[in-house]
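Minutes, project check-in
Item: structure for the 394-residue chain
Input as provided by the requester:
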Amino acid sequence: MADDPAAQEPRDAPGDEPSALEARAAEVLHAAEEVAAATGRAMVTEAKDVRRRILQDATKRRTELVAELVRVRGLLDGALDALRVPMEPSEPGGAPAPGDGAATADPAATPAPVADDLFARLRSAEPNEATAPPAPRPQRAAADVVPEAAPEPVAPDAENEDPDDALRRRRDAILEPLVPGTVRAAKRVLQDEQNSLLDAIRRARGKYEPARLLPDHEHQREAWVAILTPPMDAAFLGGRAASGKTGRVTSAPARVVGNALSIVVTQLRDRLATTIESVVAEGPYESPNELQRALGSALGARYREWKGSELEAGVRDAACAAYARGGFEAAGVGTPLRWVPAVPGHCPDCDDNGLEPTIKGSSFPTGQSHPPAHPGCRCLVVPLDRVGKPTSTA
C-alpha cells in the first residue's frame, strides 16, 4: 500500500474549495453592482433629458402665448383708442358736427364707418402690423395722455419758427403716440418675467446662478421683438419721411430693433444678473428660504425701479435712435448731413457735432456717423437741404 500512487498524491486543504466559491461569488456580485449602477445612471440621465425637453417646450409655448396675448392686448388698446376718438367737425354743407341736434338725435349715423373700419383691422391684423408711421390722432383719451409728452402747440408765427425747433416738433409728433402703448405692453411682459424669475428661485436647489434663473435669452428676445418691432418700424419710417423718402421701405432693419432690445431689455437683464450675484455673495444664509427671500426682495426692487423710472425713458431713447437712423438711411451717399442737437447747450459733444455739416460716409466730431452719440442721446440728423423744410410725403 505504501507504493499506491493515489495514496501518494497531495490532498487539498479542507478550506480551499469554499474560498474559491466565495471569491467567485464576490466577483459576480461586484459585476452585478456595476451593471446596476450603470443602468441607474443611464435611467437618471434619460429622465433629466426628458425633463429638460419638457421644460424647454413649456417655456417656449409660454413665451409664444405671452407674445400672442401682448399682440391681442395691443389690438384691444388700439380699439379702445379708436372708439374714444371724436368725430371731426363737418365741412360746410356736410354732415352735422358733434353736438348738433341732428347728430345727437341719430347717434348711429356716423360712428358706423369708424366701427366697420376698426373691426376690419382687427380681423386682418397680423403680429407685424403697424409698419408705417401712424397718422396723428385728433384727440387722445385722458387716461392715456402723458402730460410732458403732449404735442407742442403750433405758434401763430410758424413761419418765423426756428428750423431746428420745427424738426424736433415734427419728430415728437410722430414718436409721442408710440410711447404709451409700448410702455404698457412692456410692463405686462416685465411682470410675467418677474413672476417666472421668482418661481425659478423657489424651484432652485443649491445653485442660484443668473444663467440658471433668468429667462431663456432666445425666448425672451422673441417676446420682446413682438413688442418693439411695430413702434421701431414707425419711428424709422418717420425719420425717412423727414428726409424726404417714403414708399418702398416698409419696415426698420433688424439692427434698429436690436438696438431697442439692447436699451430696453439687455440693460435690465445685466442688472438682474448683477443683483443675483451680489445677494448670493452676501451669504452664508441660515437656510435656502432666507436666501430666496433676500433674492425676491432685491429683484422686486430692481423691477420696480426699472418700470417706474427707466422703462419709459428707454423706450423714448430707442424710438429717437430709430428715427435718426431712418433719416440717415434715407440720405444718399455723399449727401451733406446736419446734426441737430436734442437740447442745444446741454451736451458739448452733440453741440460740436452740430457746428457744421458732414458728408454721409464720414464721421461727425464725436466719431459717430449718426445719432445717438451716447446713451440717452435724442439728437436728429437730416440732409442739409431738408433743414427747416416741411416733411415731404411724396
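Outcome recorded: The mean pLDDT is 77.
No further action items on this chain.
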